[in-house]
Specification:
Blueprint: H1 4-14, H2 17-42, H3 48-59, H4 64-78
Length: about 80
């Protein structure tokens, strides 16, 4: 009997490069959408432009230089 991990690896290996990229893009969008929903649960009236930057803050939480740029953008759209 084949295990789940081996089956997953076999299926991933069978994908073309384009299919792998499309899968990654889809997963990235799904992750951003989950984060956006979490933020909107806390801030239902969040402006879409601000929401975009708040999602980016969470995505890049471990990147101080990127966070600084995101904060600058948030400061611009919040005023």
């Amino acid at each position: 009997m084949i295990d789940v991990q081996q089956e997953y690896e076999n299926r991933m290996a069978a994908l073309s490069g384009q299919e792998k990229v499309a899968r990654s893009v889809s997963m990235w969008k799904w992750s951003r959408d989950v984060i956006a929903r979490q933020i909107l649960e806390q801030e239902p009236d969040c402006d879409p432009e601000i929401l975009k930057w708040k999602v980016a803050q969470r995505v890049y939480a471990s990147e101080p230089a990127v966070l600084a740029l995101i904060q600058q953008a948030l400061d611009r759209v919040s005023h």
